[in-house]
Fold:
Amino acid sequence: MKLPSPIHSGLIVLATIACLSPVACLAAEAPAWLGPVAVASSPDGSRVYVALADARQIASVDAGAGTVATKVDVPGEPTALAIDASSGRLYVTCAGPSSSVCVIHAKTLQVAQTFPAGHAATGLALTPDGSRLFVCNRFDNSVAVLSLPDGKPIATVPAVREPVGVAITPDGKTAFVINLLPAANCKPDCMAAVVTAIDVATLAVAEVQLPHGSTSLRGICVSPDGKHAYVTHGLSRNLLPTTQLERGWMNTNALSILDAQTKQLVGTVLLDDVDLGAANPWGVACSPDSKTLCIAHSGTHELSILDLPQLLIKLASRQERLRTTTEVHAPAPPKPTYGQAASWERSVVSLPLDPANDLSFLSDLRRRVALPGNGPRGLVIAGGRVYVAMYFSDNLAVVNLANQDPAQPVGMIRLGAAPSMTEARRGEMLFHDATLCFQRWQSCATCHPDVRVDGLNWDLMNDGYGNPKNTKSLLLSHATPPAMSESVRETAEMAVRAGFRGILFQQCPEPDAKAVDTYLKSLQPVASPHLVGGNLSPAAQRGKELFFSKQANCAECHPAPLFTDLKRHDVGTRGAYDHGSVFDTPSLVECWRTAPYLHDGSFATLAELLGSGKHGESARSGDPLTPEQIADLVEYVLSL
Structure:
């Protein structure tokens, strides 16, 4: 994809006018698709409401007849739904650089009003009394608290990194927010995303740390009994070299259980089986009696149905045994390093007591149900049925919880006419499809959520052993050869095919690989949250002048329009695990969402990279940059 020159932040805004999605988007092809992503239900279960992201519509489905009753257009990409039973209002987050919350009369599906929201509003939840609305502004890294029914802002609460979902306890005391990605630099003992717990009364914030390797948090719900919050996410084994896939060697898929009262992690369990992964868990919902938990697996097109009371009993028993056992299985270093990781992790994975490493933990507590269609995401339980939004096939899967006969077919409700398949859309489906992977442990999207980064380091085998590298965004990958930090692939096309062989452990037919290429080439950058009304802030304007000046000389290696010279350089960033000193110059486009920085993720922020990291000093001339100049420079780069 060729960008016009000269490029500046305003161009990024122009590139996204036709695509306000917070994720990768397709330009002219998207309107043919509906793209169901989220589901809500009327209190009596007679109506199911579906957010159609690609069509920018909300559909009302007659649950009894199994047909779409009506649809309504909304002003942006709908990403989440919440219904107020007392007022009959349906609240919808409509994502974009300037998002909105759309208020719809649930019975008539007429839009009543809209409230302004932040950048890429992606999740929302109502307090039980209907007086407040919590809205996740994903790229602002914040949660907005709005009063109802007027929608006036009460407060903005900071989250950690890309909050994408929120659930509030039935007593209205706590809002749990899932942050999609880890926010720290890539040290082996700190690579994990967190859940932000907000006190609804005081808006005080606490963080619940998830296990090492936790990333791509996609779903959260609180049980109706108010005892627990449930979070779906990936659980990566990124301290290991990527030499195999068996027994979840590279990636596993997990459910973390939080105590809703103490705001502490109770435990994490694996959703996979011993020799069959359950890749990319997404939506999660709890039955009204708090006895059944349902999880959509977007990578394997399945639904997990869990026996919650028995799961909690088994988890408590296992945790007690972990606390009291005196058996020593293998010594573990206090802080594992990459050199020690392989032997240490191998012994941990064999530990039968830790549910987070036990692939058989749910074997007697869970049913896996194959769903009709492709790419399940959001879901809702209503009237004894589970309605699952199938993103890539434009339908709802309908599972009767009372029917446990595996031979009984799963129901399906079509949400519109079957769209015409395009090369880019097929590539997008393949990118997210874990059934293409050996034993279904992962998809391309596992390490590249929304085709960007997972915030982790990986020791891939394409450049030798023991030299982990940070996951790179795939935006502009085909336009900025070579690929990989050490340029071990001459082109992104080569990297796509090698990825199927060396990461998914499957041969990819050439037509499929070409479809993935087409999809990746179609990606457009998202407008930076650091822009002000689509324009550079005064600080970013000063930073821009500095960026292209001889004093800072950033443009020598990062020239517009791609902000990379497509060359390799030694800029003094060789780390302890690196085999060489020369690395590919990355593009700075959308740099604001690709932390941590450098090839090894050693800096959590650009301010650290340019400040204490002294990045770029060797190329500068004249006086050293002042702290104020560095701050301006950071603001400009984060605006790209």
